[in-house]
Amino acid sequence: MSERTEMDTVQKDEPAVPDEAADAAPGRGGLVRAARARWQWIAVGALLLGACYAPFQLVPFRVFQFTMVLVYAVALLGLNLLVGHGGQISLGHGAFFAVGAYGTAIMMFHWELPYLLTLPLAAAAAFVIGLALGVPATRLRGLYLALVTLAIAIFLVPLLKRFESVTGGSMGLTLGKPQPPAWTGLAEDQWLYFLTLAVALAAFAVTYSLLRSRVGRALHSVRDNETAAEVMGVRPAFYKRMAFAWSALFAGAAGCLYTWVIGFVSPDSFTVNLSITLLAGLVVGGLGSMWGPLLGGLFVMFVPSLSQDVNKAAPGVIFGLLIIAVMYVAPTGLAGLAGRAVHSFDKTLRKG
């Protein structure tokens, strides 16, 4: 079956809109949906304006923290494609993050490449590795796939320490941070923030377009019912593998940004705890939601430090309790909690 026939089949799977709903669209329901869409775009615009204004009002340390939120949000965008939209599981996403980070560090430290050139190269390297490691995803699922991805995250750290002449071994590599052009008038932390913001906006735009395309519908059909998707002509193995590759690409780009912002890479920064923390951040933020990665980035950045402040002796305990508390209050994540609030607001408008 050709690729065109396959995509057309996916399109046919979309439920038809009942005549009654179409007739009612110009009425109150249509007005409510239009109003909600307008408010969503207004919210996005306000958030973007606030994001552009914030680095000029915050102290450098806070600017650094919000820069790292954007870095983690880009990584979680990829993980969301794989887990939230692809229906697979990965406990090794931190390994792809490390590929991007170390790839960037090696290109800047040993090859002296311009830092802007390292971003597409690091993302491409992670994409190729993700494409290769996506082969098990076509044959495994559930706990078996989780164990394979966990093994990748486990053996990465000793592998990085092994090639000391390239990776710096346990001591890692120290690099100079990208400096802002003189014409910008920006400080170093502000320049890194806007660089990261630009990459994050591009990543969100690409993800949004991808999920609204035939590829996104195919991913959802595989996630919801793999057998039914195959009967309709969708190739589950192909889309599972591509989900891994796209997920790795975003993680590699995030790893590149991490190296720019931190200026240092070390094997101990990319242990299996990073992969678990990223997955926990995505679940707390909201699986399958466009807002989930951003909320998850806030969680990954601020909750561990908050746990350390609350109890320096056992930050892991506080971190775990906070995750439990959030999931008890919002089982579908923080994005789901916000979605329920919007739904309640819609119901109020419809009754008015």
From TrEMBL:
Compartments, record wording: Cell membrane
Residue stretches spanning the membrane: 38-56, 62-83, 90-109, 115-135, 142-160, 191-211, 242-262, 274-301, 313-330
DNA repair keyword on record: no
Region (Disordered): 1-25
Ranges of Basic and acidic residues composition bias in the record: 1-15
Principal subcellular localisation of the protein: membrane
Pfam short name (any one): BPD_transp_2
Keyword terms: Cell membrane, Membrane, Transmembrane, Transmembrane helix
UniProt topology in membrane: Multi-pass membrane protein
Keyword Cell membrane: yes
Family annotation (PANTHER family): HIGH-AFFINITY BRANCHED-CHAIN AMINO ACID TRANSPORT SYSTEM PERMEASE, HIGH-AFFINITY BRANCHED-CHAIN AMINO ACID TRANSPORT SYSTEM PERMEASE PROTEIN LIVM
Protein name per the record: Branched-chain amino acid ABC transporter permease
Native source organism of the sequence: Actinomadura rugatobispora
